[in-house]
């Protein structure tokens, strides 16, 4: 019996075929993108808790986050629908709206990412200023902008997604440890009154927090190299997005468990509220771990927003890669607000937060209508050819 050997001298098994290895690499890349997206969502929810929920909703803030679940399902489901009906090289934005209108919509979505990045940058500066009150706020803001520019420049955008899984694990265990040591200092009675100021404040909080979830669908609207793999592994994106939402809900619930209604809602700086879990217990280790976890989380949230905004602006300007100058320009534009760190700026951010879900839904609606109109135009042509 003759044994045929491959001409190229390679052996093939069911484990190490080229197709299997390619699928493994694609799945790993999608898992990294999903991890980065979920870190960005969790970071934005954490920022929203400190900036809006604690003050305006207080202990029922976890209900506001739970009420954002239908919005998450809507935008991510719409993102998958648009992705499946688009050309992978063009992406859902250009496919649904056309070349010119698509570039305008990409710029609008880039504005949404810019605001997400500004909130993350502001939160990071506020936390560092709270930890190091004697250091100049301007120096802190400028140092963060320069360091993140060098980190994301060149091939740094690819490394951000690869690093997200490791950072996510570190953040989870650090926060989990802080939760364990803080639980004995809480009281179930702090969660009452159950509805706080009423359902009106809870629904307003839910609407504001909907703007924190844009990272769940924006990656699906951009040009993709592996559209089929993204469709096959869509459960990864669903799972990571839901875990990020539930994680943010858990943080809000724990905060209400630790502090009563008026103590949680009292006026404090954003940097103070971001480190709230470590202030309840006297543990030095808990304080150190939470500071590290929040620094990593805010940096990853900032990086995800800058990367998303850079891709959208590059798409709007017909560029395939993000120039380093564009990354530097985005980060330097955050410095003035991060350095000022004053209450009027927070009030502006609070008002702008209500426009984030409106802008996102408007863009998704335009893209969906564009897909429907193109489908109707193609139907008579297909019938004529038949």
Description:
By secondary structure, this protein is mainly alpha-helical. Helices cover 77% and strands 0% of the residues. The protein contains 18 helices and no strands. It is globular, with a radius of gyration of 23 Å.
Quick one: biggest sheet? none
In DSSP terms (H or I, runs of 4 or more residues), the helix count works out at 18
Q: N-to-C SSE series?
A: HHHHHHHHHHHHHHHHHH
Task: Work out the number of β strands.
Answer: 0
Shape: globular
Question: Percentage of helical residues?
Answer: over 70%
Spans with pLDDT under 50 lasting ≥5 residues? none
How much of the sequence lies in strands comes to under 5%
Structural class: mainly alpha
Radius of gyration: 23 Å
User: End-to-end span in angstroms?
Assistant: 52 Å
Mean pLDDT: 88
Descriptive tags:
386 residues, mainly alpha, 18 helices, globular
Indicate the topology.
Layout (H helix, E strand, L loop, with lengths): L17 H39 L4 H6 L2 H16 L6 H7 L1 H33 L5 H16 L3 H27 L16 H12 L7 H4 L5 H6 L1 H25 L2 H5 L4 H5 L1 H5 L3 H33 L7 H17 L2 H11 L1 H31 L1
Write a brief structural summary.
This protein has helices at 18-56, 61-66, 69-84, 91-97, 99-131, 137-152, 156-182, 199-210, 218-221, 227-232, 234-258, 261-265, 270-274, 276-280, 284-316, 324-340, 343-353, 355-385. The protein is an all-alpha fold. Helix 5 runs antiparallel to helix 18 (355-385) and helix 15 (284-316) packs across helix 16 (324-340).
């Amino acid at each position: 019996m003759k044994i045929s050997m491959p001409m190229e001298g390679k052996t093939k098994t069911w484990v190490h075929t080229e197709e299997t290895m390619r699928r493994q690499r694609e799945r790993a890349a999608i898992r990294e993108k999903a991890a980065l997206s979920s870190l960005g969502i969790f970071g934005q929810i954490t920022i929203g808790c400190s900036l809006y929920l604690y003050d305006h909703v207080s202990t029922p803030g976890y209900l506001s986050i739970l009420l954002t679940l239908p919005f998450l399902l809507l935008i991510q489901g719409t993102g998958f629908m648009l992705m499946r009906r688009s050309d992978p090289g063009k992406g859902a934005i250009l496919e649904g709206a056309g070349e010119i209108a698509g570039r305008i919509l990409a710029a609008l979505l880039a504005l949404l990412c810019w605001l997400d990045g500004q909130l993350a940058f502001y939160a990071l500066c506020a936390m560092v200023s709270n930890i190091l009150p004697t250091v100049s706020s301007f120096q802190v803001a400028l140092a963060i902008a320069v360091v993140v520019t060098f980190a994301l420049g060149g091939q740094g955008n690819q490394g951000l997604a690869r690093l997200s899984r490791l950072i996510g694990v570190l953040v989870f265990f650090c926060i989990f440890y802080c939760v364990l040591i803080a639980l004995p200092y809480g009281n179930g009675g702090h969660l009452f009154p159950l509805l706080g100021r009423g359902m009106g404040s809870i629904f307003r909080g839910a609407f504001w927090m909907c703007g924190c979830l844009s990272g769940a669908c924006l990656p699906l609207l951009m040009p993709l190299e592996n559209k089929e793999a993204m469709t096959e592994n869509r459960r990864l994106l669903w799972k990571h997005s839901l875990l990020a939402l539930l994680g943010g809900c858990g943080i809000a619930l724990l905060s209400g468990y630790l502090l009563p209604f008026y103590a949680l809602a009292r006026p404090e700086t954003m940097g103070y509220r971001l480190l709230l879990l470590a202030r309840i217990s006297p543990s030095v280790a808990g304080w150190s771990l939470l500071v590290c976890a929040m620094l990593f989380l805010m940096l990853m949230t900032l990086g995800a927003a800058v990367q998303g905004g850079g891709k959208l602006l590059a798409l709007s300007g017909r560029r395939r890669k993000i120039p380093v100058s564009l990354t530097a320009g985005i980060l330097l534009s955050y410095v003035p607000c991060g350095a000022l760190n004053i209450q009027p700026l927070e009030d502006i951010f609070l008002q702008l937060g209500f426009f984030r879900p409106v802008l996102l839904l408007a863009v998704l609606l335009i893209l969906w209508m564009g897909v429907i109109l193109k489908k109707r135009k193609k139907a008579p042509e297909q019938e004529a050819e038949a």
